[in-house]
Amino acid sequence: MPGFPEVRLRRLRRNAPLRAMFCETRLAVSDLVYPMFVIPRRRQLQEIPSMPGIYRLSVDQAAKEAEEVSRLGIPAVILFGLPEAKDEQGSSAYHPKGVVQRAIAAIKSATPNLLVITDVCLCQYTSHGHCGVVVDEQVDNDKTLELLARTALSHAQAGADIVAPSDMMDGRVKAIRQTLDEANFEHIPILSYAAKYASAFYGPFREAACSAPQFGDRRSYQLDPANRGEALREVEQDIAEGADIIMIKPALPYLDIIRQVRDTFNPPLAAYNVSGEYALVKAAARQGWVEEKKATLEILTAIKRAGADIILTYHAKEVAGWLAEESREI
């Protein structure tokens, strides 16, 4: 193989047009999903202290936010709900008039072409803060499946385009798929949080969603951060049960998992750039330690380079604006 001085790799990096022509990974607005937190009542806009620029939104405000998201060209949102009341069974999660169900209808009415994805879990709705039914201070996997399936069905009935189970119960994809199919919602895709790790990066989300567990932790059902092979088994099982899209969460500390899943399996792959990752960038930028735009775009490009087809990120609206500016400059 020839080498220097015949080969000069800097030739294709010499100026901006050359770098743009030979760029290997391109981040696009169409890659992004914007997470939203919806709450009861009307005219509510509550900023989340640990997530600057992100708000809890009442249903009417969520519909307005969705219109802005759509104008920016972002193709989808994912909804998380905070109910008026919680109980041990998380019954507000699957109530037909629950906050997410009402938000789905309002958003689809305001922006019919915006895809609405719904998080399917019980942690925001249970009084104990765990993702399933608790028996003797342990989450009972099999008793939880019916409630998750009921929640997914209620979202589909309200008009959701995609349902996304995030609970990490064994068998939940199969239970949801069977329930949707039996109710003639066989066309609704499932985006499975297939490899969701027990991460330290969820803190701001738990503040936003008021979903911290009241006892113990979630390590009995979320993945050990040290494990890679187990993640591949989880992904394989969810695909076998009928998942249409799979997701790795968090994204940034698990780029190796994203890459290996991309190389091993065929379904579309999502990655969640989670609240803690967002908050770290925001905090460092406020201190002047990093340039926010450059750091954010570098992180999201790295997630896509690792193999993600779509990225769930709280930066989505800002990134859409930045990418639009760059396209105008070109």
Primary descriptors:
10-stranded mixed beta sheet; alpha/beta; two-stranded antiparallel sheet; 330 residues; 17% strand; TIM Barrel
Query: Mind describing the biggest β-sheet?
Result: 10 strands, mixed
Mean of pLDDT: 94
Structural class: alpha/beta
Overall helicity: 25-40%
Question: Unreliable stretches, pLDDT < 50, 5 or more residues?
Answer: none
- Span between N and C termini? 36 Å
Order of helices and strands: HEEEHEHEEEHEHEHHEHEHHEH
Number of E-type strands: 12
Number of helices: 11
CATH architecture of the domain at 27-247: Alpha-Beta Barrel
The global form is: globular
Strand content: 15-25%
Q: What's the Cα radius of gyration?
A: 20 Å
CATH topology of the domain at 27-247: TIM Barrel
| Assigned CATH superfamily of the domain at 27-247 | Aldolase class I
The CATH C-level name of the domain at 27-247 is Alpha Beta
Oligomer: single chain
Explain what the structure shows.
By secondary structure, the protein is of the alpha/beta class. It is about 40% helix and about 15% strand. The chain has helices at about 15-20, 60-70, 100-110, 140-160, 170-180, 205-210, 230-240, 255-265, 275-285, 290-305, 315-330, and strands spanning about 30-40, 45, 55-60, 75-80, 115-120, 135, 140, 160-165, 190-195, 245-250, 270-275, 310-315. The strands form 2 sheets. Strands 1, 2, 3, 4, 5, 8, 9, 10, 11 and 12 form a 10-stranded mixed β-sheet that branches.
